[in-house]
Design brief:
By secondary structure, the chain is of the alpha+beta class. The protein is built from eight helices and seven strands, in the order αααααββαββαββαβ.
Amino acid sequence: MRRFDLSEWKRSPHLTDLRRTVAGLLAEGRHRTALDEVLRALRRDPENLDGLFVALSVLAQSRTTRLASPEPLTEMQQWSALLAPITTACSACDARWYSTHAVLFADNDVQFQPTNPIGMQCQKCRYTLCRDCLKAQRPTSYTASVDAPEVVAGSCANTACDGRGLSVPVLPTGRPDATPMDPAAIEGVLVVRDGPIRPTTDDALAVVTRFLPLISDDAPLLHIRRARPGP
């Protein structure tokens, strides 16, 4: 699964069935069902650019909106391997998030400079630093006024890159730990827990869907075992 590249995605002037369905669900605050619809679409076509953009639109909803939703998103949904192409990862500490910048810059007519960005990125090679790593890179001044404006900046540590430093937008970098494969080629997954306690289906799904492009509907593909001394 390749990372989502905004330059390859073109907004269709007509609403697709998926976008229409998701928009209706979000209007009702049903975030969990909306993302389930997107994940089912990506399960059939993991590199569907419109599906990935719609997923990012769901995940880009404000934290307050998502928490107040009658159907808040689940951890398993949010970190599904099917969403790996739209994930942004810090190059220094591997912190991960879903950047809203791809949604804001979709029409190439938005320009802004956030004063407290969640991260910054090299626009050439996508070397990315999260907010905490940007702070760690910047020396602390003990003489500056507490109300003095902070200049947020960072440099690209990729020696092979001649980019101009870090800036916004912060676009998806992808997740290297998600296994790229065709979901239709997966015939079964063997899940084994070390010890006598057999994992539950929910336990197994939480791990499997994080690294393989499957969804909760694929529970029948899981073969759960418990390990015993000797094997």
